[in-house]
From TrEMBL:
SUPFAM superfamilies, A to Z: N-terminal nucleophile aminohydrolases (Ntn hydrolases)
Keywords associated with the record: Glutamine amidotransferase, Transferase
Domain Glutamine amidotransferase type-2: 2-280
Tree of life domain: Bacteria
Cited Pfam families: GATase_4 (PF13230)
InterPro entries: EgtC-like (IPR026869), Gamma-glu_amide_hydrolase (IPR052373), GATase_2_dom (IPR017932), Ntn_hydrolases_N (IPR029055)
GO molecular function: transferase activity
Protein name: Class II glutamine amidotransferase
Species whose genome carries this gene: Nocardioides jishulii
Signal peptide as annotated in the record: none
């Protein structure tokens, strides 16, 4: 499917996040070890926050491992909150408007997985999107539709509840059309202040998702590790697959879980869909 990375903490050079780890996201774009596909070369995207009202976003259909502009730009951006994504299309076109992360106001949203039978469900799901928001859908991907459903269902006021309601709507719609397991997802989203990661699938066999262990503890365990020394004690990293083989550095996020990160604090919440029947 795809691979993604999210960072929150003191401002960090984006190039260090993307290129320095031994199993960096750039390496994963060419040779993933835990993904459904080894190669994630159908484009990439980068989102980051500064003191401006909305986050910056760049997206491209080029493979991340072969894009000199990404390497150049990332070496000149420092940010306290970064989302990065490398794409392996699950069926929608390889075009810039289908690359993650997607942006609405201060929110960024990215996804690894798919809505099964999306072309069959697409009309019903599109009709459930708030007409005011519908004009903001630029591409043809299931992820962008998912994001706009969550926005419709209250993401800006109740982020976890909105995603739960959107998942419930997708599953109800899918099952009405005979799709047994409508959704596979790991989702990362943020408003630049709080980051939310979701791991869930209708089948109960979700894609991999990990978060970093306590940075201060790791710095004590590995005092010579240059990458760890660059991170603040409140830094948190969430990844589709670990960026290194450091023992104890990565913890798997459990199935059907939402991880919430805010100012260095983390909270694990059980996640389940909220059914919301839609009319045929």
């Amino acid at each position: 499917m795809c691979r993604w990375l999210a960072y929150t903490g003191s401002p960090v050079l984006v190039h260090d996040l993307l290129y320095r780890p031994e199993h960096s996201l750039i390496v994963q774009s060419l040779s993933s070890t835990m993904g459904a596909e080894t190669t994630n070369g159908d484009g990439f995207g980068l989102g980051w926050y500064t003191d401006l009202p909305t986050p910056g976003v760049i997206r491209s259909t080029e493979p991340a491992w072969n894009d000199r502009n990404l390497e150049e730009i990332s070496a000149h951006i420092r940010s306290p909150c970064v989302l990065a994504h490398v794409r392996a299309s699950s069926g929608s076109a390889v075009q810039q408007t289908n690359c993650h992360p997607f942006r609405h106001g201060r929110w960024l949203f990215m996804h690894n997985g798919s809505i099964d039978g999306f072309l069959t469900l697409k009309y019903d799901l599109a009709m459930a999107v708030d007409p005011v928001l519908f004009a903001g859908i630029e591409g043809s991907s299931d992820t962008e539709m998912f994001f706009h459903l969550a926005l419709t269902l209250g993401l800006e006021e109740d982020p976890v509840g909105a995603v739960s309601r959107a998942v419930g709507l997708i599953e109800e719609t899918g099952r009405r059309h005979g799709v047994d397991f409508p959704l596979q997802m790991t989702v990362g989203m943020t408003d630049g202040e709080t980051f939310y990661a979701f791991r869930y699938s209708s089948q109960g066999r979700s894609r991999t998702l990990f978060h970093s262990a306590d940075i201060a503890t790791l710095q004590q365990q590995y005092p010579g590790n240059q990458m760890l020394r660059r991170l603040s004690e409140d830094a948190k990293v969430v990844v589709s697959e670990p960026l290194s083989d450091l023992k104890g550095a990565w913890r798997e996020i459990p199935e059907s879980t939402c991880l919430v990160l805010h100012k260095g604090q983390e909270q694990m919440l059980p996640f389940e869909p909220q059914p919301r029947l839609v009319e045929s």
